[in-house]
Amino acid sequence: MSVFENDRRRQVQAIAAAIACVAVVGIGLSLSVPLLAFALEARGVSGTMIGINTAMAGIATIVVAPFIPQAAARLGVRGLLIFALVLGAASFIGFWYAKPLWLWFPLRFLMGASLAVLFVLSEFWINAAAPEKSRGLVMGIYATVLSLGFAAGPTVLAMVDRSSILPYAIGAALFIGGAIPVAFAHGLAPKIEGAGHSNIMVYLLAAPSAIAAAFVFGAVETGGMSFLPLYGLRMGYGDVAAALLVSILALGNVLVQIPLGLISDKVDRRKLLLILGIIGLIGASLMPFVAHRTEILFPIVAIWGGLVAGLYTVGLAHLGAQFRGAQLAGANATFIMLYSLGILAGPPLMGVGLDLWNPHGLPITIALLFALYVVIVAMRLTKRRADTIDPEAVGENP
What we know:
Keywords: Membrane, Transmembrane, Transmembrane helix. By secondary structure, the protein is mainly α.
């Protein structure tokens, strides 16, 4: 075997290990969200308190993410990932044994912190290992596999008795299972060398097209999935048709990411992000006009949802093309932070929109978010000032 073939084999093994790790944990994560909500509701906990407890995971990401690159530089990417996976498993099984409600808040924080480490370092690993010419394809495969993992979690929950310890044990086992490919990837994990910026504003200013994409997608994904069924019900749909809106949105996400990743390898990713933002704006704006016709609305939601999810895929690939080493780890941490902020901000914003204009305030609020994003990216593209410390201006196709 030639040196080139050996390097390529190791590159593929490294990417596969990171993707397998995230895919397994994705199942556990998507299992945990409805499981914990059902468990709290069964205990008579109010909806407000359930929402606050769920938000602890997002708060943990915002608090922990800035420190992840420095911790990984000291402990190693592989070592910190395994620690985070063990912490996630312990937190998951801990919910079954934690009887006082107040204990669920630190447990949710610890689980959120473990997930923050997992996603920041896994995406850094994948981005660092991806070949430059096929980075978008690799990120598309990652996003597709992760989406399939997210889809599998609720299916697992539906097959077991959620009032027993079994779903908690399965969730913990999935986190431990995610550590297996990482443990066998000895010598394949990238090293974080040098000093990255600890100030997230450096990355926000250097790569606003990608970082803002994370916020918008986090807000639209979480808010959309939360309120689309309610939007369908208020439009007069039956329960099944209203719930199908979320399934169709997720299906579009799975089908579109790999083709979109391939396209992103051939074009300027900032321009592609602008196009995706415009599609997001147009699609959301069209919904009130076609909401009464499911044969039109459902295909629009599928195509629109898949392309909008491309903000995450293309945004990650864009970061990988612009940053290296410790700076790439810092950029990934900032990306995940903004995604988490979007998760926190999206549902309240869309809930207010729905209350102000029932029911079309939902798509109009989404359209306004995309309009703001389009302005940000358009301003970035029209900015011609040469800036030697601007990593975003380096490495993109002209």
